Structures are given as structure tokens and as C-alpha cells.
Amino acid sequence: MTLTSRAFHNDQLGPWYEKICQMTNKEMALPMNTGAEAVETAVKAARRWGYDVKGIEDNRAEIIACVGNFHGRTMTAVSLSSEAEYQRGFGPMLPGIKLIPYGDIEALREAITPQTAAFLIEPIQGEAGIVMPPEGFLKEAKALCEKKTCAVHCG
């Protein structure tokens, strides 16, 4: 299905929402046009959840991401990046971003604080080839984030 602006009538969007919610066992879905748009929305949603549900003090929400990520060319995406060249000329970067080595569960454990709203992870990094986390990392990271009341977003 091609996603069009919701300003235009699309008789396939309603049935698509129903099908995707049924397939994912979720109550709602929010389709995006690009991965960068999806990451922007995920970060916004995580911060809002952190403030409204977790009780993080205003303007203090943190997002943890991994070194070597690529989430696009938007301001949030380059703020999440560990590549200085991607950030050059666009500073200052967005506050509240922490980077940890990819696949390092101890670094994640140390990085999570009461202000952590989400851990944003690519299940397989592709910017510099195909980089996979150590066996069991994703499952362990999810369990750790659940224990620490921190959302996990795969992007």
C-alpha cells in the first residue's frame, strides 16, 4: 500500500489499520513514509510517555542509542549519530541523547537512569556492513528495559 497524506481520502487506509492492528495485536498503528520519520516519531512518543506515564521531570527525558547507528538525516537522527561528519555544521545537537557501544549489555545497564525514556536499537546495524549484536543481547536488553521501566524502540 502506498501511504498518502491523511489530508486525502484513501479508502484502503481504514482496512489497513484494522489488518495491521490485528496482525500485531495492538490497538493503534501510525504508518510513516520513511524510516527517519518513524524514528522522529518514536523519540517524540518515548519522551511524551516518559513525562506523562513514567513521571520524568520536564525537559529531562533521555534516549539511549548505539554507536554506529544510522537513523536518517533529520535533526533527531543526526543527534543520535556517533558520526561527527553527520553532525558537522548542524549543532547544537538535541539534548538528552546517550550513546553506548552496540551490543554491550553492561553499558546499557550503566546508561539507564530514572530519566531514561527509551532505548533505541537497530536489531541489525547496516551503515557499515551487516553488524549483529551478540547472541541473546536483544532479549536481555528488552528484559533489562522492562525491569527499569524504559521503552525499547527498534529502528
TrEMBL record:
Q: Which coenzymes or cofactors are required?
A: pyridoxal 5'-phosphate
Q: Which Gene3D superfamilies match?
A: Type I PLP-dependent aspartate aminotransferase-like (Major domain)
Gene Ontology molecular function: any one: transaminase activity
InterPro entries given for it? Aminotrans_3 (IPR005814), Class-III_PLP-dep_AT (IPR050103), PyrdxlP-dep_Trfase (IPR015424), PyrdxlP-dep_Trfase_major (IPR015421)
GO BP annotation list: L-proline biosynthetic process
Q: Which domain of life is it from?
A: Bacteria
Q: Which Pfam families match?
A: Aminotran_3 (PF00202)
Under what name is this protein listed? Uncharacterized protein
Q: What does the record give as the organism's lineage?
A: Bacteria, Bacillati, Bacillota, Bacilli, Bacillales
